[in-house]
């Protein structure tokens, strides 16, 4: 990967002396966070600031063999630089940290009203965090987020969320030996030190497991028998999708997803407008036969959602879909030998039928026909003991650990 043509504007320091944020009918004055090292944290407020915010990552991770650039178009949407339906019920303010003429960090303060409505709390989120290895910088960034939330009457904070658990989330704390899989986070190893320094404490771990094709022969044969018995006993049918049904089936997956996960730690249902937007964005990236759909009497009762690990191609195109990056993304996928199993969900009243086992057995056949060598199951909540034990029983290996942190005022 080359960094030619990718730069962070280091010649224009933030110029705001005050920042006004409206909360209700009042105006709150916020002073940029300062410390003894003359760190200035200023809100992003124009297109140049937005470009600086996104492009900082290229300079920050220059030379890191495992970092994969984000898809720039997608990143701008998730930051609400270009509107995303998530923000129909959420707010965001992004910040840049400057030392002299140089950008040294960035962060976003987020209020996910959907989360607060679902969990009956007033909690602010933070995400899109990047910083040099300097607690002065990280403290200034987290203080800016804390003050922005306080202006809205919010004292509890959680992160990282980029911008929510239905998107990318979690700080990588174990598993720096390899690059991340598609739509999984990556960060410098010292980030946890910076997060803990501010007073954040662990809230929940997220795990990723690896399964390899050469491990299939060692699987317990009873697992396949259970799947066969369940399919025959209950008359479950399994299918893939196709171009005509793809949009509808992706929306159907999100419907099943919303039905299956209430009660899960941190879960927030995805609104219809956001679900349709996500479905539209994923339509070109999905391999139809790798979406496995379980039906009972013509009704969709469960789905396993799988994506190719596009990260090798994304790295090759440097996160640029245009003018020709999207063509390389689409035409290069037959060479990809790794998949990410994002979610296996079953409608609650059918969860004791063995539907998940039926779906996984069907997926293995399709994956072998494609020629895959490896799959990542990610992510799995630490508190989801059933899924963790099922994967471990099937021989999957724990590969990476991500962490979400909470903060409460002293």
Structure, explained:
By secondary structure, the protein is α+β, with helices and mostly antiparallel strands. The protein folds into two domains: 19-169, Gcn5-related N-acetyltransferase (GNAT) (Aminopeptidase), CATH 3.40.630.30; 210-403, Gcn5-related N-acetyltransferase (GNAT) (Aminopeptidase, 3-Layer(aba) Sandwich). It is 31% helix and 28% strand. The chain contains twelve helices and 17 strands. The chain has helices at 47-60, 72-78, 113-119, 135-150, 191-197, 221-234, 246-260, 272-282, 311-316, 325-331, 355-370, 385-393, and strands at 19-23, 26-30, 39-43, 90-99, 102-112, 123-131, 156-159, 161-162, 168-169, 171-174, 201-212, 237-239, 292-296, 299-308, 338-346, 374-381, 397-407. The strands form three sheets. Strands 3, 4, 5, 6, 7, 10, 11, 12, 13, 14, 15, 16 and 17 form a 13-stranded mixed sheet that branches. A hairpin with a 2-residue loop joins β13 (292-296) and β14 (299-308). α6 (221-234) crosses α11 and α7 (246-260) packs across α8 (272-282). The longest helix is centred in the middle third of the chain and has 16 residues, at 135-150.
């Amino acid at each position: 990967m080359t960094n030619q043509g990718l730069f962070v504007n280091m010649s224009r320091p933030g110029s705001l002396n005050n920042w006004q944020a409206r909360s209700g009918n009042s105006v709150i004055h916020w002073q940029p966070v300062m410390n003894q090292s003359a760190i200035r944290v200023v809100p992003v407020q124009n297109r140049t600031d937005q470009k600086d915010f996104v492009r900082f990552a290229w300079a920050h991770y220059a030379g890191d063999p495992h970092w994969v650039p984000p898809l720039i178009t997608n990143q701008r949407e998730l930051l609400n630089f270009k509107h995303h339906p998530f923000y129909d019920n959420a707010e965001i303010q992004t910040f840049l940290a400057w030392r002299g003429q140089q950008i040294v960090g960035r962060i976003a303060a987020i209020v996910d009203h959907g989360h607060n409505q679902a969990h009956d709390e007033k909690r602010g989120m933070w995400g899109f965090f990047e910083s040099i290895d300097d607690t002065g910088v990280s403290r200034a960034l987290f203080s800016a987020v804390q003050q922005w939330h306080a202006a809205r009457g919010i004292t509890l904070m959680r992160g990282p969320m980029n911008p929510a658990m239905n998107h990318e989330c979690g700080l990588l704390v174990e598993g720096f030996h390899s690059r991340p899989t598609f739509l999984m986070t990556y960060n410098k190893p010292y980030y946890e030190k910076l997060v803990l320094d501010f007073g954040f404490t662990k809230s929940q771990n997220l795990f990723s497991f690896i399964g390899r094709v050469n491990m299939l022969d060692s699987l317990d044969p009873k697992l396949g028998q259970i799947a066969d018995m369940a399919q025959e006993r209950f008359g479950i049918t399994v299918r893939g999708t196709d171009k005509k049904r793809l949009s509808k089936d992706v929306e159907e997956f999100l419907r099943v997803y919303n039905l299956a996960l209430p009660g899960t730690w941190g879960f927030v249902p995805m609104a219809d407008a956001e679900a349709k937007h996500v479905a539209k964005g994923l339509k070109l990236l999905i391999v139809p036969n790798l979406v496995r759909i379980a039906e009972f009497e013509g009704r969709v009762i469960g789905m396993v959602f799988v994506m190719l690990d596009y990260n090798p191609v994304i790295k090759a195109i440097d996160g640029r879909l245009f003018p020709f990056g999207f063509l390389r993304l689409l035409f290069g996928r037959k060479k990809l030998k790794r998949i990410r199993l994002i979610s296996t969900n079953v409608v609650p009243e059918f969860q004791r039928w063995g539907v998940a086992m039926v779906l996984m057995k069907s997926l293995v056949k399709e994956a072998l026909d494609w020629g895959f060598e490896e799959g990542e199951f990610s992510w799995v909540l630490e508190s989801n003991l059933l899924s963790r034990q099922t994967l471990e029983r099937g021989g999957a290996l724990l590969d990476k650990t991500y962490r979400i942190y909470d903060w409460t005022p002293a």
